What does this fold into?
Amino acid sequence: MKNKFLFFLIISTLLIGNLSAQNRNNRYAFTAKYNFIDNLTPLDGFSLYNKDNLSATTEGGEISLVRNINKFVNVGIPLRMGKAEVRRDGIPDEFSRRLNISLDLVAQIGYFYKDYIVSPYIMGGVGYQLETPSSNNAHSIAFPVGAGLNIRLHPNVYIQAQTEYRFVSSENRDQIVYGVGLMFPLSRKKDEGNKDNDGDGIKNKDDECPEEPGKAKRNGCPDSDRDRIADKDDDCPDVKGLAKFGGCPDTDNDGVMDKEDECPDEVGTIELKGCPVQDADGDGVPDGEDECPAEAGTLANNGCPVQDADNDGVEDKDDRCPNEAGTLSNDGCPEVKDTDNDGINDEDDRCPNSAGTAANNGCPEIKVEDKEILNLAVSNVEFQSSRATLKTSSFANLDQIVMLMNKYPDHHLSINGHTDSVGSSTTNQVLSERRAKSCYDYLIRKGIDSSRINYVGYGESQPIADNRFKEGREKNRRVEFNLYLK
It folds into this structure.
């Protein structure tokens, strides 16, 4: 058996040398294995330790061509030949040795990296199996599954060990196959680097562009535009350019290459993408930064001319009184102005047209009796039941509020409507708004400017008394009037 195994490996190695000489991609491998075939163990229900079955194991050989798809997948075509101990057709306990030939297509899944010493894998596939002589089981379909191990001895020599179980379509023909042998990656032809594919006098192994003729000083690569930059490194291989721009030109020599220069024929700046600075009014401020590009101005004024209509030395944009001569300290306005003569300058007086007090920011204090008018209006302004129509008895109180608005011209008035909790909250909300607006409309009709009055309804949300009692509900049905300063 040893002599046959050695002879098989020698013949396989010679065949591998021939295949290797024809391969240029270095992605194929050739394997040769010595196999041990066990047909009896599957018949005995996987009694793997049956000494009799192992002693009846037969022998065979296998050669396979393997192609690497990627670092995780190999695809192989193994051709196997050997003798198998099989059951005679129709006779359960009689066995005979028959020639067994198979051709499979299998995939190996693992991590196939050339620098790994050990590369385990799993495999599976489909194949055709021929048994001869046989009357019933000559042709079968086989489904091999198993696992294997590649052990690197040399970059071009591996030991391969594999075990597979073969599910066979014919009855009583399943097999276990144990194999060990060698795998040889098919290497590139040794003299490949001595070729000169492009005929430029530079061998392929030294030529960075082996399919394009070039010069030795550029490692065999061409330079179509003759700018001393090889085409493979030239971003603009058809136009002569500069190395600092990757071989692209800068026609106007402004430091911006033409393909990024919005003004390639005019010297410009990098900030303006190669275009020159534009200054239409000649004031030294670029148009892009000049707020008045058609008028000469100053840099401090963003390119605009200084405007000072009242000639008081304060520019109009900073002058609070641009048409009235004033002082710089008073922001361009005349010094000290007190229209209502209350001792508070107009610029600090919230009510410059009404004499007031400093404590109230120049506005007049609302007198106690005037506050009382507002308080009385809360209870005296009445409406028809469940409606927003004012009772005539309310007019006198509202007229007094008109008087207060005229007395305090700098004040504003807020009108706030409220209801009790009888009825739905939605209805009460609408009713409170309508009642407040009725008062608003009355005051407008009496000549009060609408900009000085606002109204709002709060419905039943802000009671001031208990809604469970009649007296409380009466207090809650109210309209409040408040004078305030903006």
The first strand starts at residue 28 and ends at 38. The chain has a mean pLDDT of 82.
